[in-house]
Each structure stands twice: as structure tokens, then as C-alpha cells.
Description:
Elements: H1 3-6, E1 8-14, H2 20-37, E2 43-48, H3 56-65, E3 70-75, H4 82-98, E4 104-106, H5 115-123
Parallel strand pairs: 1-2, 1-3, 3-4
Amino acid sequence: MNTQENKRALVIVAHGSRREASNDEIRKLAQTLAEKSGTRFLRVEPAFLELATPSIPDGIETCIRAGASEVVVLPYFLSAGRHVTQDIPAEVDIKRAQYPHIPISISTYLGADSRIADLMLEMA
Length: 124
């Protein structure tokens, strides 16, 4: 097992909702991803752009305090709207400035993956 890989953390970023059950779905997704990833990530944390907690900076902070030496932020969004192109990067930049020695990257948003079309067809 690669020790560096074991020190990576994943933050799943969703929009956030006034409906708490919707936010709980994202928290459950993060838990499921943590279980399925095995030792790939030190930690998998949910975070929200607005309307729910933890915030994106707080989710990243939790990972760093847990010992992550690298954080990957995955936007749980279907299109590259303003939240994906501007708002999430601005929130991530808060922690990049605070922790310049820790790589914090933003992966491609969920909807950009070509496998989404296959999944949708399978679901239909």
C-alpha cells in the first residue's frame, strides 16, 4: 500500500438543501464511498456549497486535521455552471491559502464523466 495514497482525502461537494433529508443523502453517499474505497482515501467527507453544513472549507479542514497530506474535492454536480466554475474554486482557494504546503485539487465534476450517459440508459 502506498503511504502517500493512504494520506489522501476526498471531499464530496454538493449544493446543499433546505430539506435535511437531501443533505443526509450526501452524507450517506460519503459514508458509502468511504466504505467502498477501502484504503484508497484516509477519509471521505461530505461538504456543501450553501444551506447545509459542513461548508467546503470546513470539510477540507476536517480532512487536514485527520492527517491528510492531500485533499481531492469532487463536485457532485451535473453541469459546469457558476457553482462548479466559480463558487467551488473560490471556497477551495480559502484553504489553499491557509495550507499552501498541502495539495488541494478539484476533480472534474460528476456530470462531465462519459459514463453518466451509460448509467442513465441503464437506469431507464
